[in-house]
Amino acid sequence: MSSEGDLLHVVTADQISDRRRRFGKTIVWGSAGLLFLVAFLQAADHNGWLDIGFETWRPTLYAYVLWGICLCAAQVIERGEHGKRTLFVLPATLFVVSMVVFPLLFGLVIAFSDWNLSSPDGRQFNGLDNVRQMWTDPFYWNALKNMVYYTLAIIVEYAIAFGLALLLNAEIRARKFFRVAFLLPLMLSPVAVSWMIGKSMLENRFGPIARLLRELGVENPSFFSTPEVARMMIMLMDAWTYIPFMMIMILAGLQAIPRELNEAAEVDGASVWRKFWEITFPLMLPVSITAILIRIIFKLKLADIIINVTSGGPGGATDSVTSFIFREYRDRSNVGYGTLLAIVYLIIIAAAMTILIKAVDRWMRPRY
Amino acid sequence: MSEQIFHDSTSDRTYRARRISGRIVIYGILIVWAIISIFPIFWTITTSFKMAPDVMKGNMVPWWDYTPKWLGWRSLGLSPDTIGNESTVREEFLKRFWNSAVVAVSSSLIAVALGSMAAYGLSRFSYRFGFMRNSDISFFFLSQLILPPVVLALPFLVLYKSLGMLDTRIGLILLYTLTVLPIVIWIMRDQFGSIPTELEEAALVDGLSIWGAFLTIILPIAAPGMVASFILSLVLTWNEYFFAALLTSSHAKTLPVMVASQTGSQGISWWSMAALSFAAILPLIVIGVLLERFIIKGMAAGAVK
């Protein structure tokens, strides 16, 4: 799928007149000029050099959208058939670039400033103060450490998901019922889950799980008062929602294994255990790795449950990075520091994921 | 009746015993996990019909150890006796529900449209944008998955504030489109990759333009993949909480934010919380039960190559 060649061979004989080409160039540069003009006027207005009376920066946004449309249209006008092909990818690319790259660059600017949105002073550039503050912020490092724990929990989730997928792949009746039942947790919103499980089922006095534990002889079960147990509970809730996700990916992989392999092993007299370790598991490695990588990506975004159930407590013991930054902003409405933390987090996970993917790649395809 | 002459050999008999015990174990585990998966939902439904004493006593099975009451639903204004009356809570709820629905459906639609086009282009033509070739462009799109929402959240907060787009649906729609776009592109790239190029070649020979071939020949074939990616996007955007909590306050608040804002204040009046939570998850439970195969198809797309 990643082949670079022209997969669809199309011969095009476009006669594009010079006037048409010039027209295309004109609209692109014209709209770009308009964009710069509007942006300049707005900046002037914003800084008080001129008084035009813009309320928001929306005119610039509209000019930008107009430029985007002109750019797309110009592709077809200038380059005919080839432009029509570019048109497939260009809108999505423009969208993602403008929604990601600009905010990221902008974020880099805010990250080195002290900006309290509710104070009238506006943005104050403060150099490396935020970095120094981060370096000595025990809660941030604690949140990062928690992320490592949360990510390690994926191994257990994977084992459970694999087991369930094997069971679903076995000859069973009512497979559709079980599949739907197992899938349901994935559909529920984390916020609802945090009430349904975190706030009511795990409630200390009346929750069914506390009741069950009391029946079993545990005195005063409490789930969110000690750091270890609280963290474990967050992991369990998150696992409950996302195990179906891995399970389904693995199930799809299991169903793609040709039957002949297992039959041949059976003829050779292999036990169930050996069949699993020497056929199923090795064949499932690529799928497993994809599933685990995607799961890690989702896990790194973990926040909703923590924000709603423990809001980081007790004492920041359950904080994920996202929920910590969320609270940091909520409590102090300081955009600058939060953004710096987020960007550091992005750098860490981008590096970690790159190393992980490279390592997996080398391990899967060893070069002797 | 004479005596039975032929017997199963002993090894066959142990095999049968083993098989039956194996079956029992398999079904046992399956049923236990099904209970683990479904019990919280069951708990939420039943709790929404409980009254205070039932909650305290921990009654669980309706009609057996307690009589269902409409208490929780009455507080939402959705019980049979209040459904005709004016209810501010219900209006609030319906507004949030409508916001969620609009935001989720439109962002999923935009994402599917943009994503299908991009995935089709990437699976059929070779591009060169500067140094970026096809695989680089694909990687660029997919790498957005790694980007944690928190990195974009605060810059967007500031940007939207200066653009006057805080607390608007369109702002949420744009962000949600961005978050689900990589997933759509992933699923659709897989989908288009499995469609042979001969189809378009034939269509082009017959005089269709490339966009004509895409819209009239390829899209109908790729429809299952589009439905799958649409539903997955719908699930993710309907449940999204983080951006909604940061970027909306009164006008465009979505359902998860409403649920979250109620959890703290309710104390032990679980029945109304349960009713609200259940109302929030009901649409997705319905989708999950009815369209399960599309969801599975969507998630399986990336797994098996």
Automatic annotation (TrEMBL), chain A:
TM annotation in the entry: 23-41, 61-77, 89-112, 147-168, 180-198, 239-258, 279-298, 335-357
Location of this chain's protein in the cell: Cell membrane
Main localization of the protein described in the UniProt heading: membrane
Species assigned in the record: Hoeflea poritis
Keyword Transmembrane part of the UniProt annotation: yes
Domain of life: Bacteria
Occurrences of domain ABC transmembrane type-1 (ranges): 143-358
Protein name: Sugar ABC transporter permease
UniProt entry keywords in alphabetical sequence: Cell membrane, Membrane, Transmembrane, Transmembrane helix, Transport
Automatic annotation (TrEMBL), chain B:
Chain ranges passing through the membrane: 24-45, 97-119, 139-158, 170-188, 208-236, 268-291
Statement: the UniProt record of this protein carries the keyword Transmembrane helix: yes
Coiled coil: none
SUPFAM superfamilies from the UniProt entry: MetI-like
Membrane topology recorded in Swiss-Prot or TrEMBL: Multi-pass membrane protein
Protein name (Swiss-Prot/TrEMBL): Carbohydrate ABC transporter permease
Alphabetically ordered keywords of this record: Cell membrane, Membrane, Transmembrane, Transmembrane helix, Transport
Family as reported in the entry's similarity comment: Belongs to the binding-protein-dependent transport system permease family.
Gene3D superfamilies, alphabetized: MetI-like
Subcellular location: Cell membrane
Domain ABC transmembrane type-1 intervals: 97-291
Pfam families: BPD_transp_1 (PF00528)
